[in-house]
Each structure stands twice: as structure tokens, then as C-alpha cells.
Design goal:
globular, mainly alpha, 6 helices, 70% helix, AhpD-like
Length: 108
């Protein structure tokens, strides 16, 4: 993805500070791993959202919830994933994730 005209989010955030991390993010993670055919982009997004919520990484959910929508997941499915994970990952993590989802989906 590094050869796109518009710099990636990683490039904008860390390009001059951590070029190695940008390379692995753009070229390996999103350039190779996300393109593997064994899972659809939609399924990869659902797994990623679940992993981020479970790990308590709500700050990364803003990008990945929108990316999941772009990959075909619906808002209803994503809010259900968050609700379901409340029982497995914990209520506080689910509430934090749902607040991010509300901001992403409703702008509120």
C-alpha cells in the first residue's frame, strides 16, 4: 500500500518517526495478511474487532469499525458482536467499544 498516492494512516502518523512500523503495517499487514484468501475481508474485520475489544484496545476500534463496514459488515452485526463479547470479554470493555461504535456510526 505504500505506493498509493495518498499516504496511509500509518504513514501520516509515524512515517518520519517509525518507517519500519509503517512498512510492516502497510505492506505486510494490510498488503499481504489482509489479502490472504482463506478469510473474507468481512470475516477478518469481525475477528479484528473482536480481538481489539477483548484486548481493551478501544482507540483502534474507530478505524476498524469503519473498515468492517467498508468490508460488508452491518452496523447491526457489529453492535451485536460487541454485545455478545460483553459476556466473554467483560462489561467495561464492551461499554468502551460501544461508545466508539456509537461515535463511528452515529457521530454522537
Amino acid at each position: 500500500m505504500a505506493d498509493e498516492l495518498e499516504p496511509s494512516g500509518a504513514e501520516k502518523m509515524f512515517g518520519d518517526f517509525a518507517p519500519g512500523l509503517v512498512h510492516f503495517t502497510d505492506d505486510v499487514l494490510f498488503g499481504e495478511v489482509w489479502k490472504r484468501p482463506q478469510l473474507s475481508p468481512r470475516d477478518r474485520s469481525l475477528v479484528t474487532v473482536a480481538a481489539l475489544l477483548t484486548g481493551g484496545n478501544a482507540e483502534q476500534l474507530t478505524f476498524h469499525l469503519q473498515y468492517a463496514k467498508d468490508n460488508g459488515a452491518t452496523e447491526e452485526e457489529l453492535t451485536e458482536v460487541i454485545t455478545h463479547l460483553a459476556f466473554y470479554a467483560g462489561w467495561p470493555k464492551a461499554f468502551s467499544a460501544m461508545a466508539v461504535a456509537k461515535q463511528v456510526f452515529r457521530g454522537a
